[in-house]
UniProtKB/TrEMBL annotation, chain B:
PANTHER family noted in UniProt: CELL DIVISION ATP-BINDING PROTEIN FTSE, IMPORT ATP-BINDING PROTEIN
InterPro entries assigned to the protein according to its UniProt record, in alphabetical order: AAA+_ATPase, ABC_transporter-like_ATP-bd, ABC_transporter-like_CS, ABC_transpr_LolD-like, P-loop_NTPase
Pfam families xrefs: ABC_tran
Segments forming domain ABC transporter: 2-250
Residue ranges, compositional bias (Low complexity): 233-243
A molecular function (GO) term: ATP binding
Organism in which the protein naturally occurs: Caldovatus aquaticus
Annotated region (Disordered), positions in chain: 233-278
The keyword Secreted is annotated on this UniProt entry: no
Keywords: ATP-binding, Nucleotide-binding
Protein name (Swiss-Prot/TrEMBL): ATP-binding cassette domain-containing protein
Amino acid sequence: MRDPDPVTAPAAPAARRATPWRRRRGPRRSRDPLGLRRALADRLLPGLVAAMALLATLAAAGGDAAAGLAARWQAGAAAAVTVQLPPARADAAETVRAALAALPDVAAARVVDPARLQALLRPWLGEAAAGMQTVLPLPVLIELHLTPEAAARLARAPAAEAAALAERLGTAAPGIEVEAHGLWVARLARLAAAVRGVALAVLALVAGVAAAAVGVAVRAGLAARRDSVLVVHGLGAGDGWIAAQFARRAARLAAAGGLLGAAAAVPVLMLLRGLGASLLAADGDGDAAVPGLAAAPGMLAVADLPWLPLLAVPALAWAIGWTTAQITVRRWLRTLP
Amino acid sequence: MLRFTGVGLRYGAPARGSGPGFAGGAAPETLRDLTFTLSEGSFTWLLGPSGAGKTSVLRLMQCVLRPTRGEVEVLGVAVSRARRRDLALLRRRIGAVHQDFRLLPHLSAFDNVALPLRLAGRSESVLRAEVAELLAWVGLAGKQHALPAELSGGEQQRVAIARAVIARPALLVADEPTGNLDAAQARRLLALLIELNRIGTTVVVATHNEELLLRHPAPVLRLEAGRLVGAAGAEPRPAEAPGGEPGRDAPAPAPAGAPPDDARAPAARVSGFRHAGA
Ligand SMILES: Nc1ncnc2c1ncn2[C@@H]1O[C@H](COP(=O)(O)OP(=O)(O)O)[C@@H](O)[C@H]1O
Ligand SMILES: [Mg+2]
C-alpha cells in the first residue's frame, strides 16, 4: 500500500514547486476549518488538566502504595505469631517449641536467642540490661511462622481467628501467652483500604472537574466559532464531523495537560519514596519482631515508580477531553435542524 | 421540487415542525401562511422590500431553519419529519449564496470553495483541479490562497458563489448575490445562474436588482411583511420549459484564450456540471 499513486505522485511535487507557500498556509489551515487552534483555550485548558493530572497521579500512587503495603503486611505479619513463655519455665522452651511446631497451622517454630532479646532492650536499659537477667528474668520468646492457609485465615478475620489460634496453641502448650501480629496488622490493612477508597474518590472527583473544565472550554470555543459552525452546518456537515473537530482539539489539549501533570508528579513521587525508604532504613535492620515493616523497604526503592497511574493519567485525560467535547458539541448541535 | 404548505415562522419559538401549539406566542410571525410550489428545474425571482422575509424564506429552503408551523418540502424531503442526519445530507445538495457571504475566516479562498467537496469525501486530487478551475472562472485564479479578510467585498462574494455551485447542487438559493458586484460581474453571475438552471438546477434568487429581472424574465414570488402578494406569485411556473436533458444543447467549450468577461464563458464552463440529482 506504500506504492505512490502513479497518477498523482508526479503531480504533487510539481504543484508544491509552483506554489511554494502552499505547504505553509493551505493544507495546514484546511485541517482546522473552524479555526479551533485559536478558539479552544490554548494554555488554560492544558494547565487546568495538568493540575488535575498531578493530583490524580498522586492520589492513584498513594492508593497503590497503601494497597501494596496492606498486602505485604498481611502476607508478612499475619504469618508471624510470637509466643511468650514465663521465665520460670525457661528450661521447657525446647519441649514447648516442638509441641507448637507439630501443630498443623504452624510451618516453623524458633526460640529467639536471649542475646538478641537483650540487644533489643539495650536502648532502654543501657548496659544494665546484661545484669538485669538475674534480677528481672526475661521471658522466653518463641517465634512461629504460620502456614500460608492459616495466615490467610488470620488476615481475613483477625479478631476471631486470633482467639481461636491462641486457644489451639494454648491447648498444645499450656501456660503460654500468644501475641498475634495479625490483629494490629489487620487494623493497619483496614486503614490502608480506607486510604485507597479516599484515593479512588479523589480520582473520580478530579476526573469530574477535568470534564467540567473541558466542557467550559468547548462551550467557549462553540461561542467563539458559532458562525463558522453554522456555516459548515449549512454546507451539510454532519454532527459527527463538527463534533470530531472539537473533540480532536480538546482531546489533544487534555492529553498534553495529562502528560504535563504526570511528568510533574514524577519528582514528587521520587522524593516521597526516598523519604519513606530512608525513614525505614533508619528504623532498624528489618527486625523479625516487626515483620510487616521488614517487607516494606524493598517496595520503597526509588526506581520503583507507579508506572501504571503515570501512564494511565494522560490516556484518561485524552479520553475525558474527547468524550466531553463530543457530548457538549452534539448536544449544542441538536438545537439546529 | 420545492413546496411550502401553510408555512409560518416565528423567530424564538420552539421550532418543532407543524402543530397547533404555537399560536399563543407574543411575537408576530415573520412569515405567514406561505403556500407555493416551485417545480423541479424552475428559475424563480424572490422580491420584496427589506425586512419582508426573503432571507427567512431562503433559509427555510436551505433547511437551516425549521418552520414554526406548516410544512416545507425540499427535493422530495418533508423537512419537519426528516431525521437530522438526512437533513445534513439534503443540505449537501443545496447550494446557498448568502447576503453576507459567510465565508470561513480561517480558510483560504481555495479551502472555502473546496469545503463542500471535502465534506462529501471527494479525493484531493480530483477536487484540486475542479476548485482551481472554478476559482479561475470567477476571476480569482491569483487569489486562491488569500484569506477572506484579504479580499474585497466583490471578491468575497465571488468566492461564496463558487462555494455554492462547486458541488453541483440540485437547488441553488441566492440572497442578493449581486449586491457587491459591478454590472459586468452581475451579468456574468446571471449567466452562470441561467446556465445552472438550464442543466436542471432549481434556482431561487432574492434580489433588488431590477436590471437582472429585465435581462432574465422569470416567475416571481413577491413577499410583503411575511406574506405572499399578487396572484401571479402564488403559483409561479417556469417561463420557459427547462431543457429536459442536462447539457443537451450545451455550447462547445470555449476556446482556451476566451476573455473572462465573455458572456459565453460561464455557459461553456458550467456545461460540464452534472447536478447532484433532483
Ligand atoms: N435570526 C433572527 N432572529 C429574530 N428575528 C429575525 C432573525 N432574522 C430575521 N429576523 C426578522 O425577520 C424579519 C424578516 O427578515 P429577513 O428574512 O432577513 O428579511 P429580508 O431578507 O427580506 O430583508 C425582519 O423583521 C427581521 O428583523
Ligand atoms: Mg435579506
